[in-house]
Each structure stands twice: as C-alpha cells, then as structure tokens.
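Below is one record:
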Amino acid sequence: MIDTVLKLIAFTLLGFCIFFFGVVATKMELSPATALETPASVTQTLFSAYQIEECNNGIRWAHPQGSAPLKTFIRKDAYDTTYTIYTSTHDTTARLIDTHGHVVHSWSFKYHDIFKDTSHIIALGKLNNKYFYLRDFHLFDNGDIILMISAGGVTPWGMGFVKLDKNSNVIWTYTGYVNNDFEIGDDGILYTIEHEVTRQKPAYLENVFLPYLEDNIVMLDSFGQEQDRFSLLDSIAKSPYAALLNGIENDGIGDPTHSNSIEYIQKDNPNVPWIKQGHLIISVRNLSAMVVVNPKTYEVTYAQALPTKWQHDIDLLDNGHLLMFDNRGDITGKRYTRVIEMTSASSETIWTHTQDAQGLELHSAFFGQQQRKKDGSTFITYAEHGQLFTVDQEGDIQWAYNTPLYNIVDGVKKMPVITSAQQYDSDFIQFIDKYCIVP
C-alpha cells in the first residue's frame, strides 16, 4: 500500500485530478466553463469515476478515528463562555459547539438544492451532493454566515459561496472557483482567491504545466455581486518583486502557486511601512512566500520569502508580528509541522508550537489554521487529525476537542479533515437561546 503521507500529499496537490482535466481538455479542446462531453468509451468513464472517488476519499478522510473522541478540559474557567465553529470535509454543515463539545447550533444545506445550474463544474457526469463540503466561513453577529464550498475529486475544486441566515435560509449565492480562504474587510467587501483555468503560458512564466490554475483576487459586495478581479501573477510580474516567479517549477500538475490564505489589514503600523490599512496579505504556498497587494490599484507593495514550506493561514498580529501554520518548514529535517510567530521585518521566530493536544508531534501535509486569542493563548486547527485545541504561551493545553464525525472508507472508520475553525466569546454569540441547550 502506498505510504499514507505520500498519498495525502499527492491528493493535496490533486495531481490526478488536475492532470486528468489537462489531458481531457487538451484532447477535447474544452473551455473551462464548459461541462465535459460524454467520454469516448465506457472504459474512460469508469477510469475517470475511479479517479474522482480516489481523490475525493484521499483529501477528505485522512486518518482513522480513535476509540473515542479526545475531549480534555484543562483550565475550564477560561472556557466557560467560549464557543467554537468548525467546518469539515464531512458535509456542507457548519457546527457551533460549546465548551463541552455539544453542538448548540448549525447551518446546513444541500448543494443541488440551491445551485440549480452546475454547468461550471468540470467533471464527467453530475456530482451528487456527497462530493461537496465546506472550506471556510465568516460569521456575522446576527447569526448570518457566509460559507465557501468545495468539491472532492474535481479540479478546480472551489464551487462558490452561499450566505445563509441563522435558520439556514439562503440570502445569496455566488458561483466561482473560489478556494482556500476569504475575508471580509472593514469596507464590507469580500476578498477571496479564485482559480481560473489558463491554457496559454504568459511570457513571464517559463516553467508551468498547461493548462494551469491561475490565482485571481476577486472582490464581492455585500450582496455577493462581483465588483472587481485581477490576476495575482500579473501583479507580481509587474512589481519589483517579480524575481519571486523564478521559483515556480513545472510540477506536472498545473498548480504553480497555490495561494491559500488572504488577510485584510485592519490598520496601519507606523513601525512597519508595508502594513497599510486596506491592503491584503496573501500566502503563496508553493513559493513559500507572502505578497502584499493594494486591491484598489492591483499593485504588489511588498513581498518576502518565508522560513516556511507549504505554509497556511498568515495572520497579522497587533504587534506587527506574523502568525502562521507552517506545514513542512522545520529546519531539523523531520518534516514536522509547527505554528510559528515571527517578526515581519527580520523573520525572527518569536514563538513556536510543535505538539498536538496529546503531546505528539504535529504532522499536517495540508490545511491548518491558528487564531491568537485576547489572553495571548493560541487556538489551533489540526486539520488532518480532526483536532481542535488551545495552548497558552508556555505550550500547555487549555482545551481540546476531536470531531466525532466519521465515514467508513475501505472498511475503516476515518475522521473528516477540519477545514476551518474559529472561537468566539459568549458576547458575540447572541443569536441562540443559551438557556435551552441540552447537555
């Protein structure tokens, strides 16, 4: 059997899926927005269906579930009024849990119930609802929530957004190849990364597999209507930081940059010139770098290589430091994962955490998040292992939780990947009846 880690990495890159699309698109001369026609043979149909199922299972169900979900409550006093929302590859449901792990509210939908036109999905045949899951979310204080939708086993995998009210009624939808992350700015604009399947090689890229996924920055208004978009690669190529693109390699799968997080800068920092209110910090995973862009002018105002590898979720802290989930950047060669805080000027590591809630080394080939809390603790999403936990500055566990969700894959009970999670204080969660929750 193929080594689990290698298999996960392969599925993360979605090599099978992207390569398969590239071959089919080239042979059949299809545009990205056109659904694939009926394949030439039954054999081709069965082969593609097998690939989709393999990709879907590999990215969504990563590790076997233990005998019982981990739930530890240390320093319980610090968490009596804390709530957590998480999304996973299990389904299209976002779950709000209390300190004890009880689901106290949820938002849920079925993809085909709200998206009647699925012609944008590049797949041989219609994908049923089981292939769709949630990648990210944004919660409003009235209980409205915006959910980012993905699909397992196809490329591009981003399927769009839906905004629901607290009772899961649809407010608006957006169809697009949105992926990995989005953020709402102070201006009310939704900023996201969206893929465009590109078949022509730009002059500034020498090494790229065709067709490839080009990262675009897309802006939506509060009604889900597109306001603007621009190519991140074009912006980098026109900037003083164009040399970053020399790090792009022909990976053979058409995913040269894989930008995976976007952060809206809330305010200027007088000590760090590039930290400007309204600009965006974007993590370019495959280049182990970040770029800062002005979304009004499309200009890259700053960029730097990071002491990371395959990093996710770059957060800008109030002190001007950067906090991120570094999947494969440790310098020991052991390939463990770490959450690191570093200075934005010198990339000096200020704080690092490398263990899960059970004291084991973190190992996460894909996904992962962190959130710095007001008290200085750090909430960590250990995606592949379905684990959420909080540590203080000394690295001691304050709270931990494993999702009880699972699926049977090849006879094995496996946990879904937690794609996104965030914690909220009780004063923000005012849209549920806290006195009617059954323990």
Notes: The chain has one domain: 4-425. The mean pLDDT is 85. The CA atoms of residues 36 and 308 lie 38 Å apart. The first helix runs from residue 4 to 13.
